[in-house]
Amino acid sequence: MLCCLPFFFGFAVFLGMHFPPLMADCPLDFSASNFTLASSLCSNQGDRGNCCRYINANVAISVARFANSTSILGVPPNDSVSCLQTISDKLQLNGVPQNATAFCGFGTKIPVNYECKGRTSVMQMLQSPRFAEVTKNCKVSLGEERKCRKCLNAGFGYLHHLGINDNITLSTCRDATFAALASQLDHQSTTDIASCFFGVQGLLGPPDSPHLPTLISNDCKIPLWLACQRMNGKL
């Protein structure tokens, strides 16, 4: 038996060299996601802002569904790579250009782990100071611009209160705010809030839906209150 050990060891090394270890499955559910429209948006440089918001909204909805069943804000760090690869594969299957993962910032601007200033669970977000205002003002339905703007203003106030100094953390905490809210709702209500939060009305909803404000600026891809303050010389 001992004489065979070198053979088995050598065979195992051969397998390791030629067949990389299998990637863990992504725990996010994308069965309700519709990435079809992203193909045309991401292929047009002028629509890249809409492209990235559309992808981000679909990812955030999947994270919210995951948070609904686990109470965790996004997948564990060990599963992040496999989930980002799963999303990338789905996008390419729907004709989205491969470079979309680069210009949309997969893993940074569009993460799958929504830890926000040490908050890793839905309960930590719901119980944090000023989040009650977000919950109060972001009740569905937000199809009217007035209701959506009240929701966004509450979100602005909450994010500003966190004292975030960089855009990546700000973007992640916005996604965490959405996921914490949407994790308490059904799929239709989640889509309604996503249309408001990510400014994708007409992308996730009916084509003739009215234009709504957004937590993201089309041009600079940062929250509108921060963009306005910078343009006004306040930051």
Q: What report would you give on this structure?
A:
Keywords: Signal. This is SPARK domain-containing protein. Residues 1-24 form the signal peptide. Residues 24-168 form the SPARK domain. This protein is 55% helix and 0% strand. It has 235 residues and is mainly α. It has one domain (35-231). Helix 2 runs antiparallel to helix 3 (48-70). The longest helix has 23 residues, at 48-70. The chain is globular and about 40 Å long. The termini are far apart. The model is unreliable at 5-23 and 205-235 (pLDDT under 50).
Termini separation: 73 Å
Give the ordered list of helices and strands.
HHHHHHHHHHH
Count of helices? Answer: 11
- Number of structural domains: 1
Helix content: 55-70%
Strand content: under 5%
Q: How would you describe the shape? A: globular
Return Rg in Å.
Answer: 20 Å
Instruction: Give the overall average pLDDT.
Output: 79
Helix/strand/pairing class, anyone?
Answer: mainly alpha
Extract low-pLDDT stretches.
5-23, 205-235
Q: Mind describing the biggest β-sheet?
A: none
Q: What's the β-strand tally?
A: 0
